[in-house]
Amino acid sequence: MYNGKARAYTNIALIKYWGKKDKELILPMNNSLSLTLDAFYTETSVSFSPYHTKDSFVLDGQLQDEKATAKVSRFLDIARKKAGVNDFAQVESQNFVPTAAGLASSASGLAALAGACNDALQLGLSEKELSQLARRGSGSACRSVFGGFVEWEKGHSDDTSYAQVVPSDDWEEELAMIFILINDQQKDVSSRDGMERTVATSDFYDGWLETVSRDIQTAKQAIAAKDFQALGEVTEANGLKMHATTLAATPPFTYWSPDSLKAMNKVRQIRQTGLACYFTMDAGPNVKVLCQKKDVSAILAALQEDFTKEQLTCAYAGEGLKSLEMEVAK
């Protein structure tokens, strides 16, 4: 029996990943840039054994159905092939983040599974190789292998698509992100389905691709210069462009809810008072507010005029993938 356990934290993209050019290898259409955060994370354990008769997947204490287990099994097959083993596995995962609500639970979940498989099967993967492996489970998971600012290089093959740290001189330690939890329920359109529909049908998608590489460079320059306003402005604009592509899809769809719009307008109002803060959203209704640590208390107080304390969670820069235990038993 081969056991492993790992923890990975969520990352929130400041410059978004939206669309695949290779669905099997999960190669993205564009580079993306994220910040790994400490508030939400996933812990996953895996046990390979010749005595298991099939793969099983338990999430938050609940045995998952065949569809969810099949996704995990496809990932396990990649790890098994690397290790040269055929044993089935039991996977247990605990999300300290709402699942499938646009809070990057798939990123932390698949990064943690990659780390657990690496330990259990004694693969000895480097961080780069772990990022490549995690990508095969969920694209954004490749970024959760690392802490701080992270760029996912889109690449053109399995070996050339991976994430790496963006040098920042630890500037991320001065930043924060406030989550406005509008809805922690599963969304109607998954990220995967939303991407596919947008790439295939949206008249705005080509425009997105034409500008996103420029946004990456702007963000990296802002990080190098520790220019918060420049980073905030490109983060907010890039997120809005991504969501605009969904409105031009066929059929059109949006991840926004009325309260999402309320939150975005509130952030603009706070900014007009002189507090620097900028919003972004992923494939879900929840709004994330990028700000500086020194302003967190004042921004939280302003947000509490419209949202409850329970809806607001503050996160700071988080660490990369962490091995929790490794045990090999016979």
Automatic annotation (TrEMBL):
InterPro entries: GHMP_kinase_C_sf, Mev_decarb, Mev_diP_decarb, MVD-like_N, Mvd1_C, Ribosomal_Su5_D2-typ_SF, Ribsml_uS5_D2-typ_fold_subgr. GO terms for biological process: isopentenyl diphosphate biosynthetic process, mevalonate pathway. Gene3D superfamilies: 3.30.230.10, GHMP kinase, C-terminal domain (3.30.70.890). Residues 8-163 form the Diphosphomevalonate decarboxylase-like N-terminal domain. GO terms for molecular function: ATP binding; diphosphomevalonate decarboxylase activity. Its EC number is 4.1.1.33. It is an enzyme of class 4 (lyase). The keyword Lipid metabolism applies. Keywords: ATP-binding, Lipid biosynthesis, Lipid metabolism, Lyase, Nucleotide-binding. SUPFAM superfamilies: GHMP Kinase, C-terminal domain, Ribosomal protein S5 domain 2-like. One of its GO terms (cellular component) is cytosol. Residues 179-315 form the Mvd1 C-terminal domain. The keyword Chaperone does not apply. Belongs to the diphosphomevalonate decarboxylase family. NCBIfam families: mevDPdecarb. This is diphosphomevalonate decarboxylase. It comes from Enterococcus saccharolyticus subsp. saccharolyticus ATCC 43076. The lineage of its organism: Bacteria, Bacillati, Bacillota, Bacilli, Lactobacillales.
